[in-house]
Design goal:
Low-confidence stretches: none
CATH superfamily: Probable tRNA pseudouridine synthase domain
Mean pLDDT: 84
Helix content: under 10%
Strand content: 35-45%
Number of domains: 1
Shape: elongated
Structural class: mainly beta
CATH topology: Thrombin, subunit H
Length: 98
């Protein structure tokens, strides 16, 4: 789990603004989790200064995150064991021979 940052404020019932850490900037459309690893919502926009970015999150339901609460991003899983393998390496690998 990567730390996204801390909650700053909410707009309406479903929009949340997070102050992000520039070193651990999450990807767009990443799933956001709270400290109990419950899903909060999805990052839909990154904005602000490069050194101190902010993220806009659309919450799944009514946003119940408290200000200054730390939030996390779910790390996407890799797509397979052969990720990054070149075509010539795949030709010589036993898994790909018929």
């Amino acid at each position: 789990m990567n730390v996204v940052g801390r909650a700053v404020s909410t707009f309406g019932k479903r929009m949340l603004v997070i102050r992000c850490d520039a070193a651990q900037l999450p990807g767009l459309y990443s799933e956001v989790l709270d400290r109990n690893m419950n899903p909060v919502g999805m990052i839909v926009d990154l904005f602000g200064n490069v050194k101190a970015p902010y993220a806009a999150v659309v919450c799944r339901g009514c946003c119940s995150v408290r200000p200054e609460e730390r939030l996390y991003a779910k790390v996407p899983a890799t797509q397979g064991k052969d990720r990054g393998m070149h075509r010539k390496q795949k030709m010589h690998d036993k898994r790909y021979k018929k």
